[in-house]
Design a protein that fits this description.
The chain is of the alpha+beta class. The chain has one helix at 31-60, and strands at 2-3, 10-14, 19-22, 28-29. It has one domain. The protein contains 1 helix and 4 strands; from the N terminus they run E-E-E-E-H. The longest helix is centred in the last third of the chain and has 30 residues, at 31-60. The chain is elongated and about 60 Å long. The chain starts with a strand and ends with a helix.
């Protein structure tokens, strides 16, 4: 099951429009758009973790 990046609802693939459609909010995304949003989210999470670790290491010195 694919999770909607907007509302965290379930998304289903609609063959007629060839897009993923959120069953909760109605957001429509192509597979490529979904992959891009996932990658951006992953990069943002990694950045936050790295910033925290850097802060923690400086604090320990």
């Amino acid at each position: 099951m694919v999770e909607c990046p907007n509302c965290k609802g379930d998304m289903r693939f609609d063959r007629k429009v060839r897009m993923y459609v959120c069953l909760n909010c109605g957001m429509m995304l192509t597979r490529n758009e979904l992959d891009i949003l996932r990658e951006e989210k992953k990069e943002k999470e990694e950045y936050i973790v790295n910033e925290y670790l850097e802060w923690w290491q400086k604090r320990k010195q």
